[in-house]
Design a protein that fits this description.
Keywords: NAD, Oxidoreductase
Protein name: UDP-glucose 6-dehydrogenase
GO molecular function: NAD binding; UDP-glucose 6-dehydrogenase activity
Catalytic activity: UDP-alpha-D-glucose + 2 NAD(+) + H2O = UDP-alpha-D-glucuronate + 2 NADH + 3 H(+)
Strand order of the largest sheet: 3-2-1-4-5-6
Pathway: Nucleotide-sugar biosynthesis; UDP-alpha-D-glucuronate biosynthesis; UDP-alpha-D-glucuronate from UDP-alpha-D-glucose: step 1/1
């Protein structure tokens, strides 16, 4: 009876959620909570005035199909974007923390461990401004046992305020994030196995229960929830690296990786998803989370396990360098001063996100061989492309106000807003993002306006290679039988 009363009391007074961090996770997640829970006030806060101004404008700071409509339905009603971080944290009952957890670039664990500077700063601020009990929810992807560290910071600075820490990792796929939030495979909530911890879990379950069936809301202990996120991303990345490793063997033997993938995917124990060979995986999570997993394994005396997961990243790096080598070797072993059109810069279609996109390494590899690049992507700005090509590794994951404000323009790189302009007078085309529009281009028109011989290097297997060969192109498709032109060309420099 008492627990029912506690839940009723909590529901009655739970009117305010605050999310610290207005990025790819915080913004869409809170927008969907707001539209599904009209009785709950949701505030998204960030210290970046530029980012908050964009969330309050007609041009949102991120592109995600369906996001614009959801934000506009709720904004100003029960969804608010603000730079007044402390005010909204002070008022909130539940505080989601969705701040950056970049890979450390120096010190202990450099190149692998997560940098928890921003998380610790957020925790100390929550402790400083809170005057009432709060549930603090980890929404960022964090190392296992982060909750314990955050708990210590909050407890030692609490001034009598009680905090419950929950882990609620996101499992969004960019490009389908809104649909993923509307109809999630699962919502995972980890908390302490104490009466207070269970009450906190129930409070967060009550929020999601507005639209998520109860059987899809999974509850675990804190450490299992934290590790589940790293494990999920590691398993997905592993599948991509596995099929990409197979693509190299397919090219060497004359097999077709798409036929192999289809045959393998029909095994119900394996399934067909994440078996598309490509130039490599990207995005903000896969590499970072695997490096994090490697570091945790090493710290726990598991070098063999660490080495296993390292190989997933090694294959990904190998696939990107293999692609660059294939481009250079096919074009008479030099691309110096040749125009190469880059179609697609985002790490996948239907997003403007360029974090860890394979296009960065491919472009840097080609520029390193003195190619002139003409880049077109329908959702990525010239400023972002130049920033990505001039930034050091892992700098992208620090808040934008700590990144270079005016990136150094990379010589030999131009950015255009039309695929036909990008390919005009080009010697070769590299397709690096699977945007639907690239399938529908007039390739006869493109061929007529290119230097000859004209090459297409399809890093996403989206074009009909036979049709392009009929036009006159020399075509390289990842993991497909090689064009006769390419058979005697070395795959590795």
């Amino acid at each position: 009876m008492n627990s029912d009363l506690d839940r009723f009391t909590w529901k009655r007074k739970m009117v305010k959620i605050c999310c610290i961090g207005a990025g790819y996770v915080g913004g869409p997640t809170m927008a969907v909570i707001a539209i599904k829970c009209p009785s709950i006030e949701v505030a998204v806060v960030d210290i970046s005035k530029f980012r908050i101004a964009a969330w309050n404008s007609d041009q949102l700071p991120i592109y995600e199909p369906g996001l614009d409509d959801v934000v506009k339905q709720c904004r100003g009603k029960n969804l608010f974007f603000s730079t007044d971080v402390e005010k909204h944290v002070f008022e909130a009952d539940i505080v989601f923390v969705s701040v950056n957890t970049p890979t450390k670039t120096q010190g202990l664990g450099a190149g692998k461990a997560a940098d928890l500077t921003y998380w610790e700063s957020a925790a100390r601020m929550i402790a400083d401004v809170s005057k009432s009990d709060k549930i603090v929810v980890e929404k960022s992807t964090v190392p296992v046992k982060t909750a314990e560290a955050i708990e210590k910071i909050l407890t030692h600075n609490s001034k009598g305020i009680k905090f419950q820490i929950l882990s609620n990792p996101e499992f969004l796929a960019e490009g389908t994030a809104i649909q993923d939030l509307f109809k999630p495979d699962r919502v995972l909530i980890g908390g302490r196995e104490t009466p207070e911890g269970q009450k906190a879990i129930q409070a967060l379950k009550d929020v999601y229960a507005h639209w998520v069936p109860e059987e899809r809301i999974l509850t675990t202990n804190l450490w299992s929830a934290e590790l589940s996120k790293l494990a999920a991303n590691a398993f997905l990345a592993q599948r991509i690296s596995s099929v990409n490793a197979m693509s190299a063997l397919c090219e060497a033997t004359g097999a077709n990786v798409q036929q192999v993938s289809f045959a393998v995917g029909t095994d119900t124990r394996i399934g067909p998803k994440f078996l598309n060979a490509s130039v490599g995986f990207g995005g903000s999570c896969f590499q970072k989370d695997i490096l994090n997993l490697v570091y945790i394994c090493e710290c726990n005396g598991l070098p063999e396990v660490a080495e296993y997961w390292k190989q997933v990243i090694k294959i990904n790096d190998y696939q990107k360098s293999r692609f660059v080598n294939r481009v250079v070797s096919s074009m008479f072993n030099t691309v110096s001063n040749k125009k190469i059109a880059i179609l697609g810069f985002a790490f996948k279609k239907d997003t403007g996100d360029t974090r860890e996109t394979p296009a960065i390494d491919v472009c840097k590899g080609l520029v390193g061989d003195k190619a002139n690049l003409s880049i077109y992507d329908p959702q990525v700005t010239e400023d972002q492309i130049q920033r990505d090509l001039s930034m050091n590794k892992f700098d992208w994951d620090h808040p934008i106000h700590l990144q270079p404000t005016s990136p150094t323009t990379v010589k030999k790189v131009s950015v255009v807003w039309d695929a036909y302009e990008a390919t005009k007078d080009a010697h070769g085309i590299c397709i690096l993002t699977e945007w639907d529009e690239f399938k529908a281009l007039d390739y006869q028109k493109i061929y007529d306006n290119m230097q000859k011989p004209a090459f297409v290097f399809d890093g996403r297997n989206i074009v009909d290679a036979d049709k392009l060969r009929d036009i006159g192109f020399i075509v390289y498709s990842i993991g497909k039988p090689l064009d006769p032109w390419l058979k005697d060309m070395p795959a590795v420099a």
